[in-house]
Amino acid sequence: MEKLLDMARKVCDQAEIYFCDPTSSEVMFQKGELHDIESQFQSGMALRIIKNGKLGFSYTKNLINREEFLQNALDSLKGGVQALYDFPHTSELPALKTYNQHINEVTSSSMVENCTHIADIFLQNTDAEIELVAYKEVLNLRIINSQGTDLHSKIGSVGYWLGLVYPGGGAGISRVYEEKIPFSISRNILDNLVKMYNDSSKVVTIPGGKMKVLFMPGSMYTLLWRLHSGTSAKSIYEDISPIKNDIGKQIVSEAVNFYDDPLDAEVSAARSFDDEGVPTKKMNIIEKGVLKNFFYDLNYAKKLGAQSTGHGYRSSMWGGDTITMKPGPRLQHPRIEPGEKSFEELVSMMDKGIILDGVMGAHSGNIPNGDYSVGVSPGLYVEKGEIVGRVKDVMVAGNVYDTLKKVVAIENKLHTCWGGRMPAILFDSISVSSK
User: pTM for the complete prediction?
Assistant: First the structure.
């Protein structure tokens, strides 16, 4: 990497090399039985150069010829992509314990054993089609640039995805659990999932209308996606955010505290620097319902006359290979602060409503404006504080900023979920339509 950086320095104004070395092992169960075991090892390198205010970019999975790799980046300058920012000089960062050596104890055999135990309990107590995934991931990341930055991080995580699918359909209850060290899913958690599944096994028909809806952590990305769009520097620059002029104003319920915390080393994937080498920090975005901050990468910070907030990441809402992506403003560690109610207490507060355990079509609706219209997948129906069944062919619709003004209560714990760590949140007067 150092030799490539020296070569790039000689022919351009600035240069950055991003090296990513991920390894993973995965065990998959379908219908309660072992279906597949898979391991992946795939490193890669990306080069960004800046010359005369223009950006050049190239990437490779196998660096054989440095001259050719650099020339590819130089050739891409012809695209005329502006790069008026500077790569950062970053030296001192907080030491985060993001990797625990005990993760080496996790093997494919141990994951199979744990999944077999879980599958046996589910098979004995439900009629569900059982889908399970166990995984171990280790990521080595290094960023060096011509400004003198040289950063490295090693991140390890172990996780389980549990799915209880209702017979004859694709919908089911699912949960994700992830830690930095080897762990097992407790019997109490498994028993609670069994009870929720069995309580909701009966299909019920409901009329549409306004009612309470309990967004579970697994469905919160419906709202998170729209909050991300509204508070991104990219949306501010493109003038498509409906809250672009609302810094300092109350935009949602004062019960909502929405923040990004990449420095919490108690959970996996903590980061002291982003994918551009900018230091990260805990940042409040919405505090007691008041909009406090937008988040920036280097590019959009320069365009808007601001400073990068350490949110330049090589990722997208749709996943993909980080090596092939250029950094953009992204929230990688978003959270909504927990409240005071247990999940059981939230359910008991519902006279009539739906537990939105999963969604279909989270991409539908006008995302920049905050609108959503999603199918429930599944939706558990509650009457008088008790789960009495599940619903089919039901839609939930609204606007994220309007929905977040209707908070009844927030769960008292955070859960790992797609896109961040979220509590369950109970809302009132949400539009529900049935077929």
Answer: 0.94
Q: What angle do CA 184, 187, 192 make, to 5 degrees?
A: 120
Domain with 306, as residue range(s), is 234-326
CA atoms within 13 A on the CB side of 280: 28
Sign of the four-CA dihedral 396, 401, 402, 405: positive
CATH code for the domain of 136? 3.30.2290.10
Distance CA 296, CA 290 (A): 19
Q: What is the pLDDT of residue 305?
A: 97
pLDDT (0 to 100) of residue 170: 79
What is the rounded distance in angstroms from the CA atom of residue 345 to the CA atom of residue 61? 51
Token digits for 114?
A: 């744990």
Same-domain pairing of 45 and 163: yes
Spatial contact of 155 and 141, defined as CB atoms under 8 Å apart: yes
Q: What is d(CA 72, CA 109) in angstroms, rounded to the nearest whole number?
A: 43
**What residues of the chain score a pLDDT lower than 50?**
none
State how far the Cα of 272 lies from the Cα of 92, in Å rounded to an integer: 10
Residue 16's pLDDT is 98
Total residues belonging to the chain: 435
Peptide bond into 327 cis (omega under 30): no
Q: What 3-state class would DSSP assign to 292?
A: coil
3-class SS string, 104-142 = HHCCHHHHHHHHHHHHHHHHHHCCCEEEEEEEEEEEEEE
pLDDT of residue 317: 67
In a domain, 428, yes or no: yes
Tell the residue number behind the tokens 């330049």, with chain if given. 312
Distance CA 243, CA 294 (A): 10
pLDDT at position 435, please? 79
Give the CA-trace dihedral at 306, 259, 172, 178, to 10 degrees: 100
Does residue 289 form part of some domain?
A: yes
Alpha-carbon Rg for the chain, nearest whole angstrom, is: 23
The encoded tokens of residue 222 equal 């419906």
